[in-house]
């Protein structure tokens, strides 16, 4: 009994009562009693949500890969067109060079 009196008068009980008051202690005790019931429920509800988030992430990743592949193809096409235009410009610029005119007396 002396041990119980010491615990009731002890620093831990003073902290509980001064920190959260009696309602805080009741909520804490209630949470401890309900934890075995609430943890599986929260875990059970959290698992489908986590799976849904992961599935959406995978979908977005795959869509992103497709988009980047398309952008890469368009970029490669633009590079090929630019190179072809440069080659055409080089070909026409050599044909359009002024030719010397020879005048004979």
From TrEMBL:
Q: Where are the transmembrane segments?
A: 20-45
Extract the Pfam families matched here.
DUF5132
The highest taxon in the source lineage is Bacteria
Question: InterPro entries attached here?
Answer: DUF5132
Map out region (Disordered) in residue numbers: 86-105
Keywords (alphabetical) are: Membrane, Transmembrane, Transmembrane helix
Record-given protein name: DUF5132 domain-containing protein
Q: Recite the lineage of the species.
A: Bacteria, Bacillati, Cyanobacteriota, Cyanophyceae, Oscillatoriophycideae
């Amino acid at each position: 009994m002396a041990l119980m009196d010491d615990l009731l008068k002890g620093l831990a009980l003073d902290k509980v009562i001064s920190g959260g008051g009696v309602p805080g202690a009741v909520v804490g005790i209630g949470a401890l009693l309900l934890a075995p019931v609430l943890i599986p429920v929260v875990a059970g509800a959290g698992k489908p949500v986590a799976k849904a988030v992961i599935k959406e992430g995978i979908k977005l990743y795959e869509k992103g890969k497709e988009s980047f592949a398309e952008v890469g193809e368009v970029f490669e096409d633009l590079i090929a067109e630019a190179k072809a235009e440069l080659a055409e410009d080089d070909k026409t610029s050599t044909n359009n060079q002024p030719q010397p005119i020879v005048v004979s007396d």
